[in-house]
Amino acid sequence: MTETIITVEGRFDYHHPAERGTVRLSAGFEGPAREPVVSRTTAVHNALTQAAQGLRAQSAVTWWSADRLRVWSERPWNKDGKQLPLVHHASVVLEVKFAELQTLARWVEEIASQDGVTVGGVTWALTEATKHRITAEAQHNAVRDAVDRATSYARSLGLGTVRPIALAEPGMLGDETRSTSTQNAAPMMRGAAAPAGDGGLDLKPEDITVAARVHARFAAS
């Protein structure tokens, strides 16, 4: 009996609450004199790094990093095309990764009100152990979904048995098959920190999605 070839895409999305949050922030000042600008920026930088070190000692932070202090000067122009006096700038960027998200919210709320500090945002993530575990589960379930899809198509054709003959990540079956969806088990980090109604910081990170996609080919008879 001639077999019918069925090619399908298996999909599975695994959603998991964020377990880590990395805060990106900068500290900096500008002014007509170089020394006070550098001094103020250095002072704020030192205070932030000391706070990060203290939180790490309490295990609330897993790591932190800081770029080198950047200092530069420029002569701006006004709307009439006249060059204004020299303006000096100093800035430094820091990243702090938190294991305790409640502590992250309190710390960001505290430092965001400090002069010279700008909070750039928060990147949400999973621990490596969790990411590996749910990636494997997502891939397993994507394969199961491919089997279910192929079986359903076969039954619609009046066929009873499906036999796998090829399994691959999207675009690797050797033909023109392509997927416009998320590629094989690629983690997507999304989240947001929104102001709460009482003036505090209401931390609401979105769940992290690990999406798995597989292409599979079956012979049905």
Write up this protein.
Helix content is 29%, strand content 40%. With 221 residues, the chain is of the alpha+beta class. The chain has 2 domains: 4-17 and 128-220, 2-Layer Sandwich (Translation Initiation Factor IF3); 20-125, 2-Layer Sandwich (Alpha-Beta Plaits), CATH 3.30.70. Strands 2, 3, 4, 5 and 6 form a 5-stranded antiparallel sheet that branches. β9 and β10 form a beta hairpin. The longest helix is centred in the middle third of the chain and has 29 residues, at 128-156.
Brief write-up:
The protein is α+β, with helices and mostly antiparallel strands. It has three helices and eleven strands, in the order E-E-H-E-E-E-H-E-H-E-E-E-E-E.
Question: Which tags fit this structure?
Answer:
five-stranded antiparallel β-sheet, 3 helices, Translation Initiation Factor IF3, 29% helix, Alpha-Beta Plaits, alpha+beta, 2 domains
Classified by CATH, the class of the largest domain is: Alpha Beta
Task: Give the low-pLDDT segments.
Answer: 179-200
Binned, the helix content reads 25-40%
- CATH architecture call of the largest domain: 2-Layer Sandwich
Distance between the termini: 7 Å
Taking the sheet with the most strands, its summary is: 5 strands, antiparallel
Number of helices: 3
Mean pLDDT: 87
Radius of gyration: 27 Å
Number of strands: 11
| Beta-strand fraction estimate | 35-45%
Please identify the structural class as seen in this structure. Answer: alpha+beta
CATH topology of the largest domain: Translation Initiation Factor IF3
